[in-house]
Amino acid sequence: MRIVIVGGGVVGFSLAEHLMYENHDVSLVEKDPNVCSVDGDRRDIKLICGNGSSPRVLEAAGIKGADMILAVTPIDELNIIVCSIAQQYGIASRIARIRSNEFRGNDSSIDIAKMGVTLVIDPEQVVVDSIIQYVETPGASDSSNFQHGNILIRAYQVTEDMPIANKTLIEISKDLEDQRFLFIAAVRNGEGIIPHGDYVIEPGDEIYGIFPRDLIDSYLELFNQTRKDVKTIVISGDSLTAIQLADALEKIVDKVILVDPDAEHARQAADILNNVDIIHGDCTVSSILKEVYVRNAQFFIAAAKVSEYNVMSALLARAEGAREVIAVSNEIRIDRLFNSIGIDHVIYPRLAIAREILEAIHRGHIGQVVRIRNLNIESLRITAEEDSPITGKPLQHIRSKIQKGSIISAIIRDDEMIIPDGNTVIEPGDQMIVITYTKNLSRVRKLFRSRNK
To answer: Who contacts 400 (Cβ-Cβ below 8 Å, separation ≥6)?
Structure first.
């Protein structure tokens, strides 16, 4: 598939790398000559330096005959113009990153589709969704959602008192009976493992499981967690993200407090939010955190415009007794560093946006690989093609074809999630989430492709 990306920031380059990894023909347009000179030298990407709103530049990037365009610059208007131009070139799929409610809000009088955009990615909502993943599964160490948020992957650190500790996967499976859970990866002593039935889960292991949304509470019980404990959340921030997050959370928890360091922004938030306590204050000052009783909060979420403010306020909130702290940061750093200094989760908006776009692309039947942390294990989203080597037969009869160390963790058929067993038959058109080691990716993909290709 030929794909043109306009916008060469973190989002654009992340998308380009993922899509090239999937063997798509990708070109990237970036107008900043400094970015072009630096990133063009160290990445094997077809890079066009120029304005993405120029038909001449887009033609140089291969817009004629392209299958998809991704407009992901920070400027809404530019992204819309790019999609409008792409429409006139006959490109069927035109995805735009758009922040302003003037173009995409429910009250907007503008029909964005008539301007050439087939799918809108809302940066603020993407960040909000990423944060809520952790709120709805407290204590999780890692998190991913698939299939419109209906399939969840969550990781937890195992402790001695958890029901799954010191048991094999076979024993756990018997205890769960017909529960649709599957443990797909484990991290022990820094090494990633794809576990099989005789694997014993030990205290200290970090365990990844996949399950449907309707089994959240049952899955949490395995790790001595419950959503019922999440009653109070404190949000710090002077951003649109903070407002949208507060609005979303007040519908699912008892009490939400928004502490806004900007007095005018706090007044605007008060006009929008009806069931949220709003306080003007600075969360890098301990007296403010004491005033809002942050020690009683199950979550403290720092979502201000400035990354450094978020990190400092999150650290102070942890010191004052907040149970779990989350910080939004535009600085791409190492998660382990933040974990070591007391921040449970850092949300990187630009990387979250790239993942959301990749998920949207997948719904257009492009395979997607999502790396599990920085390990050598990846989850591959792929569709089984007609007459592929493993379609039409029970899994127990084709295990020898599947590379050792790979798991078909879930099958999505007619929007239903199936946790497969030995009797499950893969049908053409089934979408699967396959967990495998990075070295096996190429071979695993071939199993789902038609023999005629």
So the answer is: none
